[in-house]
Protein backbone atom coordinates (compact mmCIF):
# COMPACT_ATOMS: atom_id res chain seq x y z
CA UNK A 1 0.00 0.00 0.00
CA UNK A 2 1.50 3.33 -1.05
CA UNK A 3 0.37 6.76 0.06
CA UNK A 4 1.21 9.91 -1.83
CA UNK A 5 3.13 11.98 0.70
CA UNK A 6 3.86 14.64 -1.91
CA UNK A 7 0.20 15.62 -1.78
CA UNK A 8 -0.03 18.91 0.08
CA UNK A 9 -2.73 18.75 2.75
CA UNK A 10 -3.97 22.10 4.04
CA UNK A 11 -3.65 21.21 7.73
CA UNK A 12 -0.05 20.05 7.38
CA UNK A 13 1.45 23.19 5.84
CA UNK A 14 4.05 25.02 7.99
CA UNK A 15 2.49 28.45 8.51
CA UNK A 16 2.65 29.25 12.25
CA UNK A 17 4.98 30.83 14.81
CA UNK A 18 6.00 27.32 15.86
CA UNK A 19 8.09 27.09 12.68
CA UNK A 20 10.15 30.03 14.00
CA UNK A 21 10.49 28.76 17.58
CA UNK A 22 13.83 27.39 18.89
CA UNK A 23 14.62 24.15 17.10
CA UNK A 24 14.64 22.04 20.28
CA UNK A 25 11.14 23.19 21.24
CA UNK A 26 9.44 22.73 17.89
CA UNK A 27 8.70 18.99 18.15
CA UNK A 28 7.03 19.46 21.55
CA UNK A 29 5.03 22.48 20.40
CA UNK A 30 3.84 20.46 17.41
CA UNK A 31 3.09 17.47 19.62
CA UNK A 32 0.74 19.68 21.67
CA UNK A 33 -0.59 21.31 18.46
CA UNK A 34 0.46 24.86 19.31
CA UNK A 35 0.74 25.29 15.55
CA UNK A 36 -3.01 24.54 15.31
CA UNK A 37 -4.63 26.71 18.01
CA UNK A 38 -8.19 26.08 16.83
CA UNK A 39 -8.26 23.02 19.10
CA UNK A 40 -7.54 25.18 22.15
CA UNK A 41 -10.51 27.37 21.22
CA UNK A 42 -12.85 24.45 20.67
CA UNK A 43 -11.98 23.06 24.10
CA UNK A 44 -12.22 26.41 25.92
CA UNK A 45 -15.41 27.65 24.27
CA UNK A 46 -17.72 25.03 25.84
CA UNK A 47 -16.30 26.01 29.25
CA UNK A 48 -17.15 29.65 28.64
CA UNK A 49 -20.58 28.67 27.30
CA UNK A 50 -21.33 26.70 30.45
CA UNK A 51 -20.08 29.58 32.62
CA UNK A 52 -22.24 32.18 30.87
CA UNK A 53 -25.29 29.90 30.82
CA UNK A 54 -24.90 29.49 34.57
CA UNK A 55 -24.98 33.27 35.02
CA UNK A 56 -28.31 33.79 33.27
CA UNK A 57 -30.59 34.75 36.14
CA UNK A 58 -27.75 35.68 38.48
CA UNK A 59 -25.66 38.11 36.44
CA UNK A 60 -21.91 38.08 35.75
CA UNK A 61 -19.67 38.39 38.82
CA UNK A 62 -16.03 39.37 39.18
CA UNK A 63 -15.15 35.80 40.14
CA UNK A 64 -16.25 34.71 36.66
CA UNK A 65 -13.24 36.45 35.13
CA UNK A 66 -10.96 34.27 37.25
CA UNK A 67 -12.93 31.17 36.27
CA UNK A 68 -12.75 32.11 32.58
CA UNK A 69 -8.96 32.51 32.81
CA UNK A 70 -8.62 29.17 34.58
CA UNK A 71 -10.70 27.46 31.91
CA UNK A 72 -8.56 29.03 29.20
CA UNK A 73 -5.33 27.79 30.79
CA UNK A 74 -6.87 24.40 31.43
CA UNK A 75 -8.02 24.12 27.84
CA UNK A 76 -4.51 24.79 26.52
CA UNK A 77 -2.93 22.29 28.92
CA UNK A 78 -5.47 19.52 28.45
CA UNK A 79 -5.80 19.88 24.70
CA UNK A 80 -2.03 19.62 24.46
CA UNK A 81 -2.04 16.60 26.76
CA UNK A 82 -4.86 15.00 24.79
CA UNK A 83 -3.07 15.49 21.49
CA UNK A 84 0.14 14.10 22.94
CA UNK A 85 -1.69 11.02 24.24
CA UNK A 86 -3.50 10.63 20.94
CA UNK A 87 -0.19 10.72 19.04
CA UNK A 88 1.33 8.16 21.40
CA UNK A 89 -1.50 5.75 20.65
CA UNK A 90 -1.72 6.61 16.94
CA UNK A 91 1.97 6.88 16.09
CA UNK A 92 1.90 3.94 13.70
CA UNK A 93 -1.31 5.05 11.99
CA UNK A 94 -0.06 8.64 11.72
CA UNK A 95 2.99 7.47 9.81
CA UNK A 96 0.67 6.06 7.12
CA UNK A 97 -1.51 9.17 6.61
CA UNK A 98 -0.25 12.08 4.49
CA UNK A 99 -1.56 14.84 6.79
CA UNK A 100 -0.10 13.32 9.94
CA UNK A 101 3.11 11.65 8.73
CA UNK A 102 5.23 14.58 9.88
CA UNK A 103 3.92 14.57 13.46
CA UNK A 104 6.84 14.30 15.92
CA UNK A 105 6.27 10.71 17.08
CA UNK A 106 5.45 9.43 13.60
CA UNK A 107 8.49 11.21 12.17
CA UNK A 108 10.79 10.20 15.04
CA UNK A 109 11.72 13.73 16.17
CA UNK A 110 10.42 12.93 19.69
CA UNK A 111 10.94 9.60 21.44
CA UNK A 112 8.13 7.69 23.12
CA UNK A 113 9.71 8.26 26.54
CA UNK A 114 9.97 12.00 25.90
CA UNK A 115 6.36 12.12 24.77
CA UNK A 116 5.13 10.42 27.96
CA UNK A 117 7.16 12.87 30.08
CA UNK A 118 5.73 15.83 28.15
CA UNK A 119 2.23 14.41 28.59
CA UNK A 120 2.78 14.19 32.35
CA UNK A 121 3.89 17.81 32.54
CA UNK A 122 0.83 19.07 30.70
CA UNK A 123 -1.49 16.89 32.77
CA UNK A 124 0.06 18.36 35.92
CA UNK A 125 -0.79 21.88 34.75
CA UNK A 126 -4.34 20.74 34.07
CA UNK A 127 -4.57 19.22 37.56
CA UNK A 128 -3.33 22.45 39.16
CA UNK A 129 -6.10 24.31 37.33
CA UNK A 130 -8.72 21.73 38.27
CA UNK A 131 -8.02 21.85 42.01
CA UNK A 132 -8.74 25.59 42.01
CA UNK A 133 -12.42 24.75 41.39
CA UNK A 134 -15.16 23.72 43.85
CA UNK A 135 -15.26 20.04 44.78
CA UNK A 136 -18.26 19.17 42.60
CA UNK A 137 -16.51 20.65 39.54
CA UNK A 138 -13.31 18.75 40.39
CA UNK A 139 -15.23 15.46 40.50
CA UNK A 140 -17.02 16.24 37.23
CA UNK A 141 -13.69 17.15 35.62
CA UNK A 142 -12.01 13.93 36.74
CA UNK A 143 -14.83 11.91 35.19
CA UNK A 144 -13.74 13.14 31.76
CA UNK A 145 -10.51 11.13 31.97
CA UNK A 146 -12.39 7.99 30.94
CA UNK A 147 -13.58 9.72 27.77
CA UNK A 148 -10.12 11.08 27.00
CA UNK A 149 -8.43 7.71 27.53
CA UNK A 150 -10.83 5.88 25.20
CA UNK A 151 -10.98 8.45 22.38
CA UNK A 152 -7.91 7.38 20.29
CA UNK A 153 -9.32 3.87 19.99
CA UNK A 154 -12.76 4.94 18.73
CA UNK A 155 -11.65 5.38 15.11
CA UNK A 156 -10.64 1.72 15.13
CA UNK A 157 -13.91 0.29 16.46
CA UNK A 158 -16.73 2.60 15.38
CA UNK A 159 -17.77 4.73 12.43
CA UNK A 160 -18.71 7.45 14.93
CA UNK A 161 -15.45 8.62 16.56
CA UNK A 162 -16.70 12.18 16.05
CA UNK A 163 -19.53 11.46 18.51
CA UNK A 164 -17.01 10.36 21.14
CA UNK A 165 -14.96 13.47 20.45
CA UNK A 166 -18.13 15.50 21.05
CA UNK A 167 -18.65 13.83 24.42
CA UNK A 168 -15.02 14.55 25.32
CA UNK A 169 -14.41 18.03 23.92
CA UNK A 170 -17.57 19.54 25.40
CA UNK A 171 -17.10 18.25 28.94
CA UNK A 172 -16.18 21.80 29.84
CA UNK A 173 -19.89 22.68 29.82
CA UNK A 174 -20.72 20.67 32.97
CA UNK A 175 -17.36 21.48 34.58
CA UNK A 176 -17.85 25.23 34.20
CA UNK A 177 -21.54 25.17 35.05
CA UNK A 178 -21.02 23.22 38.25
CA UNK A 179 -18.05 25.42 39.16
CA UNK A 180 -20.29 28.48 38.90
CA UNK A 181 -23.46 27.08 40.47
CA UNK A 182 -22.53 24.02 42.49
CA UNK A 183 -25.34 22.01 40.91
CA UNK A 184 -26.47 20.15 37.81
CA UNK A 185 -29.49 21.61 36.00
CA UNK A 186 -31.55 20.56 32.93
CA UNK A 187 -30.35 23.60 30.95
CA UNK A 188 -26.73 22.50 31.47
CA UNK A 189 -27.46 18.94 30.32
CA UNK A 190 -29.29 20.19 27.23
CA UNK A 191 -26.42 22.53 26.31
CA UNK A 192 -23.90 19.71 26.71
CA UNK A 193 -25.89 17.46 24.36
CA UNK A 194 -26.29 20.40 21.96
CA UNK A 195 -22.54 20.86 21.83
CA UNK A 196 -22.00 17.17 21.11
CA UNK A 197 -24.06 17.66 17.92
CA UNK A 198 -22.01 20.78 17.13
CA UNK A 199 -18.83 18.73 17.31
CA UNK A 200 -20.38 15.98 15.18
CA UNK A 201 -20.91 18.62 12.49
CA UNK A 202 -17.59 20.42 12.53
CA UNK A 203 -15.45 17.32 12.98
CA UNK A 204 -17.22 15.57 10.10
CA UNK A 205 -16.20 18.55 7.98
CA UNK A 206 -12.63 18.28 9.29
CA UNK A 207 -12.45 14.52 8.69
CA UNK A 208 -13.05 14.98 4.96
CA UNK A 209 -9.43 16.12 4.66
CA UNK A 210 -8.36 12.57 5.57
CA UNK A 211 -11.12 10.45 4.05
CA UNK A 212 -8.99 9.10 1.20
CA UNK A 213 -6.05 8.10 3.40
CA UNK A 214 -8.34 6.88 6.16
CA UNK A 215 -9.93 4.45 3.71
CA UNK A 216 -6.50 3.10 2.78
CA UNK A 217 -5.37 2.47 6.36
CA UNK A 218 -8.77 1.36 7.66
CA UNK A 219 -9.54 4.32 9.95
CA UNK A 220 -13.26 4.92 10.44
CA UNK A 221 -15.02 8.29 10.53
CA UNK A 222 -18.39 9.91 9.92
CA UNK A 223 -16.88 11.52 6.82
CA UNK A 224 -16.31 8.07 5.32
CA UNK A 225 -19.65 6.80 6.62
CA UNK A 226 -21.70 9.64 5.11
CA UNK A 227 -19.64 10.19 1.97
CA UNK A 228 -21.47 12.30 -0.61
CA UNK A 229 -24.37 12.81 1.83
CA UNK A 230 -22.18 14.58 4.37
CA UNK A 231 -23.60 18.03 3.69
CA UNK A 232 -27.09 16.83 4.64
CA UNK A 233 -25.81 15.14 7.78
CA UNK A 234 -23.87 18.23 8.85
CA UNK A 235 -27.02 20.31 8.29
CA UNK A 236 -28.93 17.86 10.47
CA UNK A 237 -26.32 17.93 13.23
CA UNK A 238 -26.19 21.72 13.21
CA UNK A 239 -29.98 21.96 13.11
CA UNK A 240 -30.33 19.66 16.11
CA UNK A 241 -27.63 21.64 17.88
CA UNK A 242 -29.41 24.97 17.28
CA UNK A 243 -32.75 23.59 18.48
CA UNK A 244 -31.18 22.25 21.67
CA UNK A 245 -29.37 25.53 22.30
CA UNK A 246 -32.72 27.32 21.98
CA UNK A 247 -34.18 24.84 24.48
CA UNK A 248 -31.33 25.51 26.92
CA UNK A 249 -31.99 29.25 26.59
CA UNK A 250 -35.70 28.70 27.24
CA UNK A 251 -34.97 26.53 30.29
CA UNK A 252 -32.69 29.25 31.66
CA UNK A 253 -35.53 31.79 31.35
CA UNK A 254 -33.33 34.30 29.56
CA UNK A 255 -34.53 37.66 28.31
CA UNK A 256 -36.25 37.55 24.89
CA UNK A 257 -33.61 39.99 23.65
CA UNK A 258 -31.19 37.09 23.57
CA UNK A 259 -32.78 36.14 20.23
CA UNK A 260 -30.71 38.85 18.50
CA UNK A 261 -27.22 37.37 19.14
CA UNK A 262 -28.70 33.88 18.82
CA UNK A 263 -29.87 34.72 15.29
CA UNK A 264 -26.38 35.95 14.35
CA UNK A 265 -24.95 32.76 15.76
CA UNK A 266 -27.24 30.43 13.82
CA UNK A 267 -26.67 32.39 10.61
CA UNK A 268 -22.91 31.95 10.97
CA UNK A 269 -23.38 28.27 11.80
CA UNK A 270 -25.48 27.42 8.77
CA UNK A 271 -23.30 29.46 6.44
CA UNK A 272 -20.80 26.63 6.93
CA UNK A 273 -23.30 24.16 5.50
CA UNK A 274 -24.00 26.43 2.54
CA UNK A 275 -20.31 26.71 1.68
CA UNK A 276 -19.31 23.10 2.34
CA UNK A 277 -17.54 21.26 -0.47
CA UNK A 278 -16.24 17.91 0.72
CA UNK A 279 -13.91 17.62 -2.30
CA UNK A 280 -12.07 20.81 -1.33
CA UNK A 281 -9.73 20.05 1.59
CA UNK A 282 -8.68 23.67 2.05
CA UNK A 283 -12.29 24.79 2.30
CA UNK A 284 -13.09 22.00 4.77
CA UNK A 285 -10.23 23.21 6.95
CA UNK A 286 -11.36 26.84 6.70
CA UNK A 287 -14.94 25.95 7.63
CA UNK A 288 -13.73 23.85 10.52
CA UNK A 289 -11.66 26.77 11.82
CA UNK A 290 -14.66 29.09 11.38
CA UNK A 291 -16.18 27.36 14.39
CA UNK A 292 -14.02 29.52 16.63
CA UNK A 293 -16.16 32.48 15.54
CA UNK A 294 -19.29 30.36 15.76
CA UNK A 295 -18.46 29.38 19.32
CA UNK A 296 -17.58 32.94 20.33
CA UNK A 297 -20.96 34.08 19.01
CA UNK A 298 -22.67 31.49 21.19
CA UNK A 299 -20.64 32.58 24.23
CA UNK A 300 -21.72 36.14 23.44
CA UNK A 301 -25.33 34.96 23.20
CA UNK A 302 -25.25 33.48 26.70
CA UNK A 303 -23.27 36.48 28.01
CA UNK A 304 -26.00 38.76 26.66
CA UNK A 305 -28.56 36.75 28.58
CA UNK A 306 -26.47 37.06 31.73
CA UNK A 307 -25.95 40.81 31.30
CA UNK A 308 -29.66 41.38 30.73
CA UNK A 309 -30.52 39.63 33.98
CA UNK A 310 -32.89 41.78 36.03
CA UNK A 311 -33.45 44.36 33.30
CA UNK A 312 -37.00 45.35 32.48
CA UNK A 313 -38.32 43.92 29.19
UniProtKB/TrEMBL annotation:
<keyword id="KW-0997">Cell inner membrane</keyword>
<feature type="transmembrane region" description="Helical">
    <location>
        <begin position="189"/>
        <end position="207"/>
    </location>
</feature>
<comment type="pathway">
    <text>Cofactor biosynthesis; ubiquinone biosynthesis.</text>
</comment>
<dbReference type="GO" id="GO:0008412">
    <property type="term" value="F:4-hydroxybenzoate polyprenyltransferase activity"/>
</dbReference>
<dbReference type="GO" id="GO:0005886">
    <property type="term" value="C:plasma membrane"/>
</dbReference>
<keyword id="KW-0472">Membrane</keyword>
<dbReference type="InterPro" id="IPR044878">
    <property type="entry name" value="UbiA_sf"/>
</dbReference>
<dbReference type="InterPro" id="IPR039653">
    <property type="entry name" value="Prenyltransferase"/>
</dbReference>
<feature type="transmembrane region" description="Helical">
    <location>
        <begin position="159"/>
        <end position="177"/>
    </location>
</feature>
<keyword id="KW-1133">Transmembrane helix</keyword>
<keyword id="KW-1003">Cell membrane</keyword>
<comment type="similarity">
    <text>Belongs to the UbiA prenyltransferase family.</text>
</comment>
<feature type="transmembrane region" description="Helical">
    <location>
        <begin position="38"/>
        <end position="57"/>
    </location>
</feature>
<comment type="function">
    <text>Catalyzes the prenylation of para-hydroxybenzoate (PHB) with an all-trans polyprenyl group. Mediates the second step in the final reaction sequence of ubiquinone-8 (UQ-8) biosynthesis, which is the condensation of the polyisoprenoid side chain with PHB, generating the first membrane-bound Q intermediate 3-octaprenyl-4-hydroxybenzoate.</text>
</comment>
<keyword id="KW-0460">Magnesium</keyword>
<keyword id="KW-0831">Ubiquinone biosynthesis</keyword>
<keyword id="KW-0808">Transferase</keyword>
<feature type="transmembrane region" description="Helical">
    <location>
        <begin position="293"/>
        <end position="312"/>
    </location>
</feature>
<dbReference type="Pfam" id="PF01040">
    <property type="entry name" value="UbiA"/>
</dbReference>
<dbReference type="InterPro" id="IPR000537">
    <property type="entry name" value="UbiA_prenyltransferase"/>
</dbReference>
<keyword id="KW-0812">Transmembrane</keyword>
<dbReference type="InterPro" id="IPR006370">
    <property type="entry name" value="HB_polyprenyltransferase-like"/>
</dbReference>
<dbReference type="InterPro" id="IPR030470">
    <property type="entry name" value="UbiA_prenylTrfase_CS"/>
</dbReference>
<feature type="transmembrane region" description="Helical">
    <location>
        <begin position="63"/>
        <end position="81"/>
    </location>
</feature>
<protein>
    <recommendedName>
        <fullName>4-hydroxybenzoate octaprenyltransferase</fullName>
        <ecNumber>2.5.1.39</ecNumber>
    </recommendedName>
</protein>
<feature type="transmembrane region" description="Helical">
    <location>
        <begin position="123"/>
        <end position="153"/>
    </location>
</feature>
<dbReference type="GO" id="GO:0006744">
    <property type="term" value="P:ubiquinone biosynthetic process"/>
</dbReference>
